[in-house]
TrEMBL record:
It comes from the Eukaryota. Pfam families: Acetyltransf_1. This is Acetyltransf_1 domain-containing protein. Residues 18-191 form the N-acetyltransferase domain. InterPro entries: Acyl_CoA_acyltransferase (IPR016181), GNAT_dom (IPR000182), Plant_NAT (IPR052810). Gene3D superfamilies: 3.40.630.30. Belongs to the acetyltransferase family. One of its GO terms (molecular function) is acyltransferase activity, transferring groups other than amino-acyl groups. Keywords: Acyltransferase, Transferase.
Length: 414
């Protein structure tokens, strides 16, 4: 092909109009799925992580209080070449001290309206044409119209294109670097410490406990009740030292918190399995066969407690642990017992892994069992202030605040 005809083609493609509009389920599903298929997002290297949205491209935002999905289409044929999802909710961005009595100061949460961008994809054949930028800008327009004060995104720190797009072009700054901890679900059940009792809390008890103890944690969602009451929320579990409480003597969260045991911990389980499936692609046949062999042996001889490799090379589901918290010197041990309980629950539900996400300096992370090879030590969260005229008072500009020890990761956005 001559240089002049190539130049003609380039000119023609750059002339093709790109239009960004709201996603319409009735006509866009196939086009969106096609782009999704071509964008296997994953850590660099031979393996990639593919997400199957089970025919519902909007599934990863639809449980948030307000959400929107946009698509970018190109040319007269209106081919879909990119998409973006976004949602808005109210979360804690800091705390202030409230004087409660003469010498008693109580921390209270400061809330802000926060937007979140996820699932940004541009077809590989249409990259570096400004489509990603256009999608982000249109989404931010909707965020502003709906009163969002900040917007944030999460991306792998080695996703160069995404980090550059947000930090260089869109005005985001690097904010937090939590860790995604992923533990395999073995073919055998794991033992839960017999020094710990695990109680299942109803949504009202769970809400009371979370609001009283964790509402000042960064990113705590003000609508925690709607998360706990969502059908995807499979339960909240509390670990206490054996002998301190049991299901029959449970006094309710209010009385429990008036006189808690020295150490306790809590977490909730979210069913991601019914929302989307993941699949690790690109593994060699040898690797897959080895993994399968460990599982077959583990299933046949469960008493050996073999740490078998879960099924991740076919579409698999997982549970997400959110609201991981606790108090006292043995809180990490309590969290460990809860995670082991969650493992057995996930096994019964047919999940391949259990995942959670915690702040980089979270003290309880040492109690969370995980495999390094499946986990992501540094998930990069970037943030942007959408307007300058917000009065976030005592907190000031959240984007400049130092990280806390803990964060609350909303399961609806994982
Ligand atoms: C990240 C992604 C959405 C960017 O889409 P895009 O349409 O190619 O981006 P744009 O053309 O709008 O790029 C805008 C700016 O981002 C930066 N950028 C985008 N891709 C880049 C790359 N591969 N390398 C370096 N910088 C890049 C540049 O600053 C670019 O401006 P420039 O072209 O003037 O230099 C796209 O690469 C993609 O879909 N990747 C796979 C999915 C993914 O990683 N999504 C993000 C997860 S949140």
């Amino acid at each position: 092909m001559s240089v002049s005809s190539m130049n003609d083609m380039e000119a023609k493609s750059s002339e093709r109009v790109i239009e960004v509009r709201e996603f319409e389920a009735s006509k866009d599903c196939l086009g969106v799925e096609d782009v999704e298929r071509r964008c296997e997002v994953g850590p660099s290297g031979a393996l990639s992580l593919f997400t199957d949205l089970l025919g519902d491209p909007i599934c990863r935002v639809r449980h948030s209080p307000a959400f929107l999905m946009l698509v970018a289409e190109i040319g007269e044929e209106k081919e879909i070449v990119g998409m973006i999802r976004g949602c808005i909710k109210t979360v804690t961005c800091g705390k202030k001290l409230y004087r409660n009595g003469k010498n008693n100061k109580q921390p209270l949460p400061v809330f802000t309206k926060l937007a979140y961008i996820l699932g940004l994809r541009v077809s590989p054949s249409h990259r570096r044409m400004g489509i990603g930028l256009k999608l982000v800008e249109k989404m931010e327009e909707w965020f502003r119209e709906n009163g969002a004060e900040y917007s944030y995104i999460a991306t792998e720190s080695d996703n160069f294109a995404s980090v550059k797009l947000f930090t260089n072009k869109c005005g985001y700054s690097k904010f937090r670097t939590p860790s995604i901890l992923v533990n395999p679900v073995f073919a055998h059940r794991v033992n839960v410490s017999n020094r710990v009792t695990i109680l299942k809390l109803g949504p009202n008890d769970a809400e009371y406990l979370y609001r009283r103890r964790f509402s000042t944690t960064e990113f705590f969602p003000r609508d925690i009740d709607s998360i706990l009451n969502n059908k995807l929320s499979l339960g909240t579990f509390l670990a206490v030292p054996r002998g301190s409480h049991n299901a029959d003597s449970w006094p309710g969260s209010d009385l429990f918190l008036l006189d808690p045991p020295e150490s306790w911990a809590v977490l909730s389980v979210w069913n991601c399995k019914d929302v989307f499936k993941l699949e690790v692609r690109g593994a060699s046949r040898v690797r897959r066969t080895l993994a399968k062999t460990t599982r077959v042996v583990d299933k046949a001889l469960p008493f050996l407690k073999l740490p078998s490799v879960p099924e991740v090379f076919r579409p698999f589901g997982f549970h997400f642990l959110y609201g991981v918290g606790g108090e006292g010197p043995r809180a990490d041990k309590m969290v460990k017992a809860l995670c082991r309980h969650a493992h057995n629950f996930a096994k019964e539900s047919g999940c391949s892994v259990v995942a959670t996400e915690v702040a980089s300096r979270e003290p309880l992370r040492f109690g969370i069992p995980h495999w390094k090879t499946l986990s992501c030590a540094e998930d990069l969260w970037c943030i942007k202030r959408l307007g300058e005229d917000y009065s976030d008072g005592s907190v000031g500009d959240w984007t400049k605040s130092p990280p806390d020890l803990s964060i609350f990761v909303d399961p609806r956005e994982f």
